[in-house]
What we know:
Blueprint: H1 4-10, H2 16-22, H3 32-44, H4 49-61, H5 66-71, H6 77-94, H7 98-105, H8 107-126, H9 131-159, H10 165-174, H11 176-190, H12 197-205, H13 208-216, H14 224-229, H15 233-244, H16 252-270, H17 278-281, H18 283-301, H19 304-317, H20 323-347, H21 353-381, H22 384-406, H23 409-416, H24 419-451, H25 455-473, H26 492-525, E1 527-529, E2 535-537
Antiparallel strand pairs: 1-2
Protein name: Major facilitator superfamily (MFS) profile domain-containing protein
Membrane topology: Multi-pass membrane protein
Keywords: Membrane, Transmembrane, Transmembrane helix
Amino acid sequence: MAPIGAAAAARQADPVLTRIVEQDTVPWYRKRNLRRLYALLLPTCIGIEMTSGFDSQMINTVQITPTWQAYFNHPKGALLGIISAAYNLGAICALPIVPYVNDKYGRRWSIFIGSWIMVVGSLIQALSVNAGMYIFARWLLGFGIPFCIIAGSSLMGELAYPKERPIMTSLFNALWFVGSLVAAGISFGTQGIKDDWAWRIPSLLQAGPSLMQIFFIFMIPESPRFLISKDRREEAYHTLITYHAEGDTSSHFAVAEMAQIEHTIRIELENSKRSWREMIVVPGLRKRVIIGSFLGVFTQWSGNTLLSYYLNDLLGLIGYSDPQFKGKLNVGLNSWNLVNAVCISLLVRRFPRRKMYLICATSLLCCYIAWTIALQQYGMEKRVQPARLTIAVIFIYQACYNIGYNALTYTYLVELFPFAQRAKGITIFQFFGRSAGFFTTFVNPIGLNNIQWKWLITYCCWLAFEIVFIYFNFPETYGRTLEELAFLFEDRSLAEEATMNVEKQMNWADRRYSRIEERMSWEMDVVIPNQNGERKHGGRGEVRDMRRGDWWED
């Protein structure tokens, strides 16, 4: 069986828009409107994953807090599992309705709704009086996060300039570690508090990222692709002109991008019922669903949930029980994660997606093999060397995980699914990811309690499967715009039809701009004195407003 990347690449049409983008040598920070857009995307979209990072780290660090342990009567096994897993369970329950909110009301309203749900969940969590209330609060937090993640990742990919899109969507996941680091620092700082506020304060502050999103979300434009799908073409074109062409209505790039988006979405909608059923029935979409589903599982079953939720137990297996040491290690680990995740995100434009995923999965397998051996050696001899090796492997593992499953996840998903099915596609990814996360978060403490280091062998076997699956099934999406990837698994003629429309509109625009320039040049040469002796231009010189919504029609 041959890898799927070459076959999918053969069906892609000529990358007209990509070539235009490559000719643009002006960096984003020299474009005023684009700078403003990216500055607003930081708190509204990129910052969404800070909530997930905060939650994962907070539930990890409160287990080190003596007052939390005492308040909830030292939860272990199944109770500890459901406390940690309730967040993912809430997310699973929300997923059936998230795509409809996205497709009907737009990306911004979905983020707004989800953020308010998480604010309420944070308040309930901070004021919990028993384990049941605490579990419900975590369920509610999880219920709100998919609205924001699915809309935010889509909106960022659809608003960003094509040259920076891979970096922006990669930073989306990298900011997970900002939330994680902040939670680790806050929890470490509140450990000295002798009452219940040692864990209630971090719970309350979890609402911080959501409040930022509520405040800033309507300061950014709606997705041009969503606007076009709702026949609001003038607004869509105005957004593209403002942020991708810096207000230049004669921009060839804006002409090509508008034509490509409009014609691609038209073809998509003509060939799509936008139903859940067609995600399985249509061969091209079915391939995408399989890849997205397994990618969701891979992001949770690669051993990362052990570190995100049960670092306390893992350190206990190698003899580290001091809460101060655990807190410092936790802050150091999250600082390391943030630095390497951001660095990898900034370099993601330079490397093909398949290669990065294969490097990621292979290196994770090597880390887990070394980790398993180190834990086994410590269990037999109780020597300090295997314990130190375990800590070193944990740091190396995190960098390896960030190469693929952190940096590329939403970049790849936005590229993999076309606009008409993007919200549903990311929802499917979220369903399998959250389900896998719920399962592993629930069973990890049980496995660690019963078979200790042997539990890591299951992850070694699974990681070997990941390598094989990625090699044979992941297509390459590197170096193309979203519309150039829209027909990745479909008939090549559909991709060529969209490309022909782009070229047609560009040729039409070239002829029109030439006529306008010729007319304006002629006007400059015809100067007529008026009765007062003043000189003014003759000729009519009417130049049509290029912002009108009907100019790009055939």
